[in-house]
Every structure is written in structure tokens, then in C-alpha cells.
Amino acid sequence: MRPAEDREVDRLLDEQVAYYRALAADHLDQGLDLPGGSELAEALEAFKPAGSVLELACGPGVWTSRLLRHTTDVTAVDASPQMLAIAAARVAGQPVRFIQADLFTWKPDRRYDVVFIGFWLSHVPAERFESFWSLVADCLKARGRVFIADDAYRTPDELIEGPSSSTIRRRIPDGTTFRLVKVPHQPADLERQLGRLGWHIKVTSTAGPFYWGAGSRAAAGPGTQRDTRT
Asked: What is the pLDDT of residues 43-80, one digit of tens each?
């Protein structure tokens, strides 16, 4: 039998999926109007996500349309069919493949030049952080790159278990409440965490609560066989 802690994380993640499914129609009204947001788009433009791109947790496709300015094609994955429908309408006729899947159980069927993680990493619980980054590694070609955009913003009324907990509560417009994961990553700490897992990703804060990161797997050391699969 799985430990009670694992089962509780599963329940929390199920509730998080239910929240985004219920919120889909109103999601575009939930953006943070705070300083620093425009810096994320500028950083992505400078990053130039060329080639085939995998977008994890694409939501309603806001970033999908930006990625298409540079890429050959995009594969966009999300657990919410409602979000995927909105995203598909937004980029109709463009080279995008949509996949409905739970990112904590999904297995990629190919590798990509770039993995883009937009406003999703903060929703990955600490208990699944390492396995999530193993998934990212499995999605990348040998010289593949990663781009992260996210925020560490949590309102006082969301902190139902106090500021030390990553479990928050959010309300959709009809008043229904859901528990979610919201980890307030700090750039330096996130860099160190990723470094311990074998990633070389520089994480940069913006003028507001947002941050972005770009990089790749750390170079293989002497005597280490590099994965050359594509």
C-alpha cells in the first residue's frame, strides 16, 4: 500500500486539475497585473525557442501563440480538455499538436529541441519535483534547452495552512473553492535545486513576483556517456 502522504498528494493534485477544468472559461481574466510580467515575454524572445517545442501545461494557449513565432512546431500538453479547446481555437491552422494528459503520469513519445514550462513549475509539489525534472530530461534531445516562466505570488487569504505550506486555496467565480499547490520558488534556491539534479539553468527575477529561467542539462563529465538519442 502506498504511504498516506503519497495518497494525500494525489488527492491534492486531483483537486488542482479540477480547479483548472472549472476555471477554463474564466482563466484569461485571472492574470496577474503586477510589475515584471512583460519581462517574461522579452526573455522568451531573446531565448528564441527554435525547432520542435514541447509546452507543458499549456492552459488556454497564451504562450503557445508566442512560441509559434520562433518554432517549427509545438506539442502542447494539458490535463484539462476545456483549456485545450480554448488553446486549439486560439492557434487554429498552425502546427500544434495537443495532448490531454496528466503530467505526473504522462510519457513522451518523442524528444524535443526545447521544453517550455509556463506558470506550471510552482504547481509541482516538492514530493514530485525530482520526478518532474526526470520527465523533462526524457523529453529533450541531447542538446535540448529549457525555458521556465512563473511567479511566486500568493495572497494572504490563499494561505490556508500558513506561509510555510505550499498548499493554497483558490476560488472560481461561482464561489467554489479548490486546494492547489503553489510553491513560492526563489530564483537562487531554485537554481541550486536544479543544479543538484544535473541542470544548468540560470533563474532570473523580474521587477515583480515573476521569474524566468533558461538553460539545459549540465555537460557530461569525463567518462560519462552522453545520451545521444533524438
From this structure: 999 999 999 999 999 999 999 999 999 999 999 999 99
> Does the residue 119 lie in any domain?
yes
Residues 6 or more apart whose CB falls under 8 angstroms from that of 73 comprise 52, 53, 95, 96, 97
Quick: pLDDT tens for 140-151.
999 999 999 999
* Location of C-alpha cell 502542447: 76
Contact 172, 19 (CB under 8 A): yes
We report the CATH number of the domain holding residue 194 as 3.40.50.150
Residue/partner pairs of 194-197 with CB below 8 Å, 24 or more apart: 194/133, 197/130, 197/133
Residue 221 lies in a domain: no
User: pTM to 2 decimals?
Assistant: 0.90
Whether residue 57 is contained in a domain is answered as yes
Is 230 among the domain residues?
A: no
Per residue in 112-155, pLDDT tens? 999 999 999 999 999 999 999 999 999 999 999 999 999 999 99
Distance, in Å, from the CA atom of 11 to the CA atom of 15, rounded to the nearest integer, reads 6
As beta bridge partners, residue 112 has 140
Element (H, E) at 170: strand 167-171
Beta-sheet pairing, 167-171 with 177-181: antiparallel
CB-neighbour burial class of residue 2 (10 A; exposed 0-12, middle 13-18, buried 19+): exposed
Closest CA to 151 of 172, 182, 129, 130: 182
